[in-house]
Amino acid sequence: MDYNGFDALRKKAAQMPQKVIAVAAAHDEEVIVTVAEAYKKGIADFILVGDEKRIAELAQKNEVKFDFTVIDERDEKEAALKAAELVRTGKADVLMKGLLNSSVFLKAVLDENRGLKTGKLLSHLAAFEIPACAKLAFHTDGGMNTFPNLESKKQIIANALAALNKLGIVEPKVAVLAANELVSEKMPSTVDAAALVAAVQRGELPSCSIEGPMAMDVALSKEAAEHKGIASKISGEVDLFVMPNIEAGNMVGKTLLYAAGAKMAGVILGGAKPVVMTSRAENAEGKLNSILLASLVS
Q: Does the pTM exceed 0.90?
């Protein structure tokens, strides 16, 4: 199943039971406006954990009306733990970061007693709606792990494939990216890419159609593959782009957003449930898309 954009994801979400998102430290103006809009659009319901008085003031200021459950907690550490515990105990389906430090939030996610720790590696999955592309492009990991080794890359791919399967994308087409298609010890990303392809062939990772090492031009364009004399079964039709490291993923993602007019959603995988941790620089639409993606893969 392919999705031509976030509207297609919204249509899928409309056919499914509404998910509940627990927001840690929800006393933030952007959060209040975003969750109210998400609820209005039928994307999700919410439980807000934070300063109840401040939440009410922000709602009044922005003329926002909602009927969410609010749990009064002013301490950011405890707010994060309480929100994580709501997800851990099944009272919510997704955890979302509000107005608190990212390290405090992630500590709550990984808390042994109240968090979402599973023993799996946490990784980031981004979805991009790109004007020049016919379907959503998923990228991993451009936002969580800095320079993952081979074993970490296996977990990153496994996390992403599980999420894509939940979206109904069966046998995803996966490109393990590098600067070129030749395996060379001088370029470790190419060695890892070949090893990841072999791991899928041995059944060590979930089923997918994977190729690598593969340069970005070949991944995006059948014409580029043909011009290079590369016989690829997935060129021009890739679902999942596996980045060699966070620097590559970060650069590609921001180039798409700021130079190519792309729209983005992001979710953290590997916990017991998905986690939304958007940047404050992300616009309202991006935050809504992230809530939507997390709800669908929960």
A: yes
